[in-house]
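Example record for the data management plan.
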Amino acid sequence: MAIETVTMPQLGESVTEGTIGQWLKQVGDAVEKYESLLEVMTDKVNAEVPSPVSGTVHKILVEPGTTVPIGTPICEIAVEGAELEAPAAVPPEAPGASATQEPPSSAAAPQGMAEGRGRYSPAVRRLAQEHGIDPAQIAGTGAGGRVTRKDIEAAIHGKAQEAPTTVAPAAPSGAGPVGAAPATAIAAVPSAPAVIEDGDTVEPLTPVRKVIAERMVRSKATVPHAWIMIEVDVSGLVALRDQIKDEFKAREGVSLTYLPFMMRAVVEALRAVPQMNAQWNGDSVVMKKRINLGMAAATDRGLVVPVIKDADQKNIVGLAKATQDLVQRARTGRLTMDDLSGGTFTVDNTGAVGTILTYPVINAPEVGIVTMESVVKRPVVVDNMIAVRSMVNVCLSFDHRVVDGADAGKFLQVIKKQLESIGPHTSIY
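Corresponding structural encoding:
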């Protein structure tokens, strides 16, 4: 037998490290090539990693919950075909601690360290810039001495511990969205510890929940969120869906929900306001050519955001099938890395859980996320008369660094116009 070393894969552009979620195979288990070996989480995607070879899991090198740089050996697989090599000794005090081990010493180490320290990923540069940190002054723990996002976050935490515990006064009205304090002030105030009393139960964070928490904190602390909402009369849409949903289910094999109609409206809005189909890049804005819609999906293991690629090229039927396929695979843990990457804008059907108003957190580096709330019947004024109409609230959070209120309002107006134009005779093909 021979030993095949599996390393932490590259899970997306600008991603420099990943966190082991859980091992789907244990030492001694047989694994087929392309069979899921483990779950890995990054600040961009959660995905199952397939085995590159067929064989038997020989050794697990990194424990669940550990974050390591891309390219770090994470496990060994024994493969038929050659003599089995003795596994490399691992110091007993450092199992799964690859992320903090110093690289092996050699004559070339100083040069490698210098090269590693001089190259910073966009995520590292952006985070460092937003918190006034010089990455060149930080000792990197990544491969070759590379400075990772964790290193920057550790430096931010260090600054927070040194900073006074008093909260900085709010900025004057007009200095930012609703007079909010700068993001650096938010990050500089440490969280208050929980008060644990008799009878309380302390549950450690699962790896998935930990990554979700880190993403949410990072987004709220570094992205200047602004929020607006618009009311939409979807009486025509409700009539159309009620008219064709049974026939649609029998013919297409999937349920017809309101979400595909919302996605089509969002596509038209992104075409009309391309600033919303963009990504923040530190000192620049990337205007995305493709329209790839992320859709928030709740699973037993936490929230994931699979992506419908080229959503602008699909009609209502295509979007209905794509959304149901992604939701089913998300809930059964069968999403691929490709399913979870490449999003340019996110849509969340929060109305499915009965909400009528939400304030979603932006999926950075995207610059916007829109929610469709519950469709409810309400009395409204139509032609100076009171009428009962099916109404829905559409909420938008946007990055105020990239999008101004006027463009955000135009974006929602396009969605409103598209949804209100739907009626019993609208084609879904």
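Summary line stored alongside the record: Residues 84-117, 163-188 have pLDDT under 50 and may be disordered.
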